[in-house]
Amino acid sequence: IGTRARPDLPGPRGLPFLGNLLQVLPAVRAHRILELDLAWFGKYGKFFSLTMPGVGRTIFLCSPDSVEHILKTNFENYEKGCVFNSNLKALLGDGIFNVDGHAWKTQRKVASYIFTARAFKTVIAQVFESETNRVIDILRQHAHTNPDVPLDLQALFYRFTLNSFSLIAFSKDLHLLDDLEKPVEFSEAFDYAQETCGGHFTKPYWKYWERFTSRGRKFEKMCKVIDEMTYSIINEKKNQPKYDTPPKAGTKDLMDLFMEYRDEEGNALNEKELRDIMLNFILAGRDTTANVLTWSVHLLLLNKETASLPSPVTYDTIRQHTYAYATLYETLRLRPSVPRNRKLALKDDIVPCGVQNVLVKAGDSVMWIPWAMGRQTDIWGDDALEFKPTRWLEPETSKLKAISPYQSIAFHAGPRQCLGKVFAEQEALRMLLPMTSGFEFERVGSADVGYEKSLTHPMRGGLWVKVKERT
Ligand code: HEM
Fold this sequence. Notes:
The protein is α+β, with helices and mostly antiparallel strands. The chain has 2 domains: about 1-80 and about 340-385 and about 405-410, 2-Layer Sandwich (Uridine Diphospho-n-acetylenolpyruvylglucosamine Reductase, domain 2), CATH 3.30.43.20; about 95-330 and about 420-470, CATH 1.10.630.10. It has 17 helices and 10 strands. The chain has a 5-stranded mixed sheet with strand order 1-2-8-5-3, sandwiched between helices. A 3-stranded antiparallel sheet has the order 4-10-9. A two-stranded antiparallel ribbon has the order 6-7. Helix 7 runs parallel beside helix 17 (about 420-440). It is globular. The N and C termini lie far apart (about 65 Å). The mean pLDDT is about 90. The structure holds protoporphyrin IX containing FE. Protoporphyrin IX containing FE binds near residues 96, 111, 337, 411 and 418. Its cofactor is heme. One of its GO terms (biological process) is lipid metabolic process.
């Protein structure tokens, strides 16, 4: 409905009215949508097209030059767009992930002030150190008191990243590492809301459907839980006594920066705007890094490798740990924390795609699938499916290779490249190094694990391991 025929584009044949919906839905339900994307690239080549009611036409592209064109060369022509925005609105509102233009630019500019070298060496370093030590203590204690009882590392990483991010961004300790038995109501609600919002892309009539179903009712309830915690942090911050002397630049937290922001007319952000910003940053700061930590341990275990390298890691020395870096990027190649992504074309455009060009019409969506791109032999070589950190290193010098960000796309690229890239690298490596060099993990259950339906890429069912301290 509302899409014109495009016989020039390859892709699976759809049905009248429904387009390809019935081919996509079973894969979504079975948590196998990424495998379906990959299979279709295998069948149709570097690009193919699907249509879905409520979304229109989506052109899937699997080539670094296409991604570079969309994310940088013709950046102005591609935006998140109204489908993306409305599908994620209830959760992300008008936060940075869900907006374009002026609203995006402003949020990016304000937030960039917390990612300074000075902040990395002071506030951020202190929090990473203290929170990593807390996790190491938990593992040590568990190894000694419960060596035969499995522990879910993924759940632990989620607590670690959320607690660390909250300390840095809102100066608030959520005490998530104090008692692992205590459920984290906010996290459960946030996971449920993400799954529901992600599902909107394959449920054209979700707005009506959710009005009458238990999922819709639960979603509403979960959004209330999320809002309660978010607004309570905002109010707590607002009611804090003002500083006698204003904090120096580099010591303000993210919330301070957004609360102090004034637009051209001198207006401050209202509570709803602050809520949206905060939740987008929680999604960025909690889920993505917890995902890469989980998949790193999983892949290291599967390949019987250890990322053991001398600790401690500091802001200045971290890039010397090249093998650990390579492990992180190799994990992100196979298990990108944002495995699928899309944008909407504003005007007709010609997108390069390897040896071909693709005509994208105004109103089409374009999609790139980092998960599938990481598995392409023409991009990564015949061993693309193997976990091989050394592919990131120069064979002679073991220095990190310079690989284009459009090929290694896990952190996005171009003007909207991930703002927290360095933050995430530091946090993940500071955790991974002492963990893998200090402990041995034995997987419990099958190594053939899947992923949850989400906006990010959590492991389905968690990563359950027995823990032993290395001697
Ligand atoms: C391994 C960890 C991470 C990965 C793989 C990752 C990946 C990404 C990706 C793919 C995007 C683009 C999303 C989009 O389509 O809009 C993005 C954007 C962003 N990321 Fe990250 N991220 C990570 C960690 C973080 C952390 C820890 C933070 C904050 C502390 C952060 C902050 C942001 C922000 C603010 C944006 C929006 C940038 C913009 O739209 O201008 N990220 N990230």
